[in-house]
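Lab notebook, design round three. We kept the backbone fixed and only want residue identities now. Task for the bench partner: fill in a sequence for the structure below.
Input structure tokens:
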């Protein structure tokens, strides 16, 4: 089972708002935002030194991101979480509540993957409540995250909070930490910030967050398999010290293309197929 049917209602909500705001031009706005992503993410552009931040503020950009990436990114991360589970990374989740932080968590791919993982656990192995916090630059994702959390109602209660931080601006992150978290997730985040102009701030921020993680907590990293990206992450981990590597792999990950009718309709309208494969590099670490 993949994630496309779970993403459809989120995309439909953005689609409705887009039609109200842009009328007949809406589909063209989304297509142009999809093309901008291909340029921004393609040909190793993310890793060009001193490039500018990607701006996720516009409604069309958000709809394009949700359409193209959310289901795939959730599926890839779910595979990584399952690998972590095989290595015992999630043995201690049988608590009343757990706290999870996703840095660069965006519109909810990481949350969808986490909830799917928890649903694979027996009731006596999983928490009743997940306190899920996103640290991200784009405050517009908060509303979408709340919709994602609402759509997952049932087995597990989710409390979503959002803290707007920009890792390139120390004034926004100096108070942030992860000392209460059981799990810290970075899914397709490091590639986006590891080559930015404000390199010193980004490094310090990641070092601070990784350094604040408490003993026995888990850190999950998943990104594209570019050495300059995963080495960047590995270097930050090494500079902090005290982590055991439960999983450290590079592998092709494929998403289940379980498109529903709504997604098929959007694929016809936008003339694109969402991302279904990732040449991935991922890590699951435990703080010792
Ligand atoms: C490629 S998206 C990944 C989102 C989600 N984790 C996923 O896999 O679908 C990158 C995320 O990083 C956030 N981001 C980009 N630059 C940032 C910065 N300087 N500080 C904090 N967050 C940033 C974006 O808003 C976006 O949510």
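Proposed sequence:
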């Amino acid at each position: 089972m993949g994630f496309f049917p779970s993403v459809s209602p989120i995309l439909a909500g953005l689609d409705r708002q887009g039609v109200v705001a842009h009328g007949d031009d809406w589909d063209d706005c989304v297509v142009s935002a999809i093309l901008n992503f291909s340029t921004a993410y393609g040909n190793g552009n993310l890793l060009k030194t001193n490039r500018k931040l990607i701006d996720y503020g516009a409604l069309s950009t958000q709809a394009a991101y949700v359409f193209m990436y959310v289901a795939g990114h959730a599926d890839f991360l779910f595979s990584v979480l399952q690998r972590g589970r095989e290595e015992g990374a999630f043995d201690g989740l049988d608590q009343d509540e757990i706290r999870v932080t996703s840095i660069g968590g965006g519109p909810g791919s990481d949350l969808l993957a986490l909830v799917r993982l928890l649903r694979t656990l027996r009731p006596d192995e999983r928490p009743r409540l997940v306190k899920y916090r996103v640290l991200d630059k784009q405050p517009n994702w908060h509303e979408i995250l709340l919709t994602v959390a609402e759509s997952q109602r049932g087995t597990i209660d989710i409390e979503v909070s959002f803290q707007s931080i920009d890792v390139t601006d120390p004034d926004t992150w100096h108070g942030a930490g992860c000392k209460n978290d059981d799990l810290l997730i970075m899914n397709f985040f490091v590639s986006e910030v590891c080559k930015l102009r404000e390199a010193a701030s980004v490094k310090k921020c990641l070092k601070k967050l990784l350094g604040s993680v408490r003993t026995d907590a888990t850190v999950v990293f998943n990104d594209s398999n570019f050495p300059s990206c995963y080495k960047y992450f590995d270097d930050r981990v090494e500079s902090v010290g005290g982590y055991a590597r439960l999983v450290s792999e590079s592998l092709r990950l494929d998403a289940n293309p379980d498109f529903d009718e709504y997604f098929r309709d959007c694929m016809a309208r936008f003339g694109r197929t969402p991302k279904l494969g990732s040449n991935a590099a991922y890590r699951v670490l435990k703080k010792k």
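Keep this in mind before ordering anything: The mean pLDDT is 94.
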